[in-house]
Amino acid sequence: VQLQASGGGLVQPGGSLRLSCAASGFALSNYYMSWLRQAPGKGQEWVASIYDDGSVAGYADSVKGRFTVARDNLKNMLYLKMDSLKPEDTAVYYCAKAPRTSVRTPGQYDYWGQGTQVTVSS
User: Fold this and answer.
1) How confident is the model over 9-51, as pLDDT tens digits?
2) Which residues on adjacent β-strands are paired with residue 9?
């Protein structure tokens, strides 16, 4: 199982980024997937999750209305579109595979990507 996140970078407040996560070694279509993040000096934080059929499981209150999670099972890809970015969104973002649905606790994920850095700053 491998998860490769990409698409991070430096963006000004109010800007947008689209993160991608390429999955290999397993059929993405069979699994509930999530994005999590870790800001400097802080613990890991759940951001968003999506069910295997593409329906959204939920968003953290801090990103609700600004972030959109999506997936393309045919391409084995997971996405996170981030709009109206704020400095407090600065973090390393990870895609993660869960062993079952409804997982939101970072310690319960069984596979993580390597992370992609998002920095929101003027």
Assistant:
1) 999 999 999 999 999 999 999 999 999 999 999 999 999 999 9
2) 118
Tokens of 23: 């999955």
The answer to whether the beta carbons of residues 116 and 92 sit under 8 Å apart is yes
How far is it, in rounded angstroms, from Cα 102 to Cα 31? Answer: 11
| 63-99 residue pLDDT tens | 999 999 999 999 999 999 999 999 999 999 999 999 8
Query: With the CA atoms of 95, 97, 100 and 106 taken in that order, what torsion angle do they form, in degrees rounded to the nearest 10?
Result: -50
Angstrom distance (rounded) from CA 122 to CA 113: 28
**Are the C-beta atoms of residues 25 and 97 closer than 8 Å to each other?**
no
Dihedral sign, Cα of residue 84, residue 107, residue 31, residue 1: positive
Its sign, for the CA torsion 83, 66, 26, 105, is: positive
